[in-house]
């Protein structure tokens, strides 16, 4: 099982990958180069918007992986009965804006209540 917090080495590798994405973003935003009329602030605005999108995409993917790890059933926290899990999309504010999280939700027919399973 992966460590809860990534090592400094792994975080450094991720920064290098992201730095490469920054170069790709620059070419995507200005294929012919920005020209002399684009200010540094203009460049930062383009990249800041892209980084917020990266945060949303990464958080959505990682929480989806966690939801997959929970499986298809979970025990009702009230009575312990195993209940099928469905996915419900919830918008949640993250540092990149609003991410759409596809969260597992259980419904216990015995207790007539919904619950959010946890690890
Ligand atoms: Zn129950």
DSSP strand content: 25-35%
Name the helicity range.
40-55%
How can the largest sheet be summarized? 4 strands, antiparallel
Poorly predicted parts: none
Mean pLDDT: 94
**Spatial arrangement of strands, main beta sheet:** 1-2-3-4
Number of helical regions:
2
Radius of gyration: 20 Å
Number of strands: 4
Instruction: Specify the structural class.
Output: alpha+beta
Query: Helix and strand string, N-terminal first?
Result: HHEEEE
Global geometry: elongated
Distance between the termini: 13 Å
Ligand types: zinc ion
Brief sketch in words of this structure:
The protein is α+β, with helices and mostly antiparallel strands and 119 residues long.
Task: List its salient traits.
2 helices, binds zinc ion, elongated, 44% helix, alpha+beta, 119 residues, 4-stranded antiparallel sheet
Give an account of the 3D structure.
This protein has 119 residues and is of the alpha+beta class. It contains two helices and four strands. The protein has helices at residues 8-29, 40-69, and strands spanning 73-75, 82-94, 97-108, 113-115. Helix 1 packs across helix 2. The structure holds zinc ion. Zinc ion is lined by residues 76, 78-79, 81, 108, 110-111.
